[in-house]
Amino acid sequence: MDKHSLIGTYQLVSWENRAASGQTTHPLGPDAQGLINYSQDGYMFVQIMASHRRPHAVNELFAGDIDEIKRSAITHLSYCGRFELQGNEVIHHVQICSFPNWVNTEQRRAFKFNDGQLHLTAFGIQSGGETVDAHLVWRRVAAQ
Fold first, then answer.
1. pLDDT one-digit tens code per residue, 87-112
2. DSSP letters along 20-57, please?
């Protein structure tokens, strides 16, 4: 598959983390919202957040008490950078990320299209104190 088949914007359908024990969790809830975009210029972005996030008490962008800031941080994931395809993997070369540990890393995702939806799988992600496989399903909302 070539890069052009991936180009477009997709809306999150589901995100499940599956542990070796068989336990399935939804890290941002079963109704998480998100968008991922792969552009023709070779860049990508992804934004995922929990639904029904509570607003901060003060309507100021970089303000809030420590609990509000913590709650905002753990209910949102975003990153962007260049991407490339290698076989059945898309490699995200992370340049900017809400999780600092991923900056300047490669995030590899197995990908396939099934019933018109994009399936991305990240193997061996640390979540909740254990290693899980993250399975994300995306529905195309716009081609570029």
1. 999 999 999 999 999 999 999 999 99
2. TTS-EE-TT-TT-EEEEEE-TTSEEEEEEE-SSPPPPS
